[in-house]
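Most newcomers find our protein records easier to grasp once they have seen one. Each record describes a single protein and holds just a pair of labelled lines. A learned vocabulary of local backbone shapes supplies the integers on the structure line. Nothing more is needed to start thinking about how sequence determines fold. The record below serves as our worked example for the rest of this section.
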Amino acid sequence: MPKFTNFKLTEADRPFLDTLKFTSEAQYHVLLRAQQEQRLSYEQIAADLQIPLNTVKTRLHRAREKITKWRAKAEAEAFNHALNTYS
């Protein structure tokens, strides 16, 4: 299981993060913004949303996994595009 201790959202993540708002996974968008942009602790997020602390941790972990996979897919597509362009 990957560790996300140094996980940071970047401007390149914004399109993916924005699409989360309009999916069944909108909860991930809310949690990531609360933690990354508002700099709330897990405990503060749990209290604000009135959900268990472990739920916050689990959902943030899943959200980070999704963004990490999205980044890898975007990098692979860019690499393949570059290969096709220059070959």
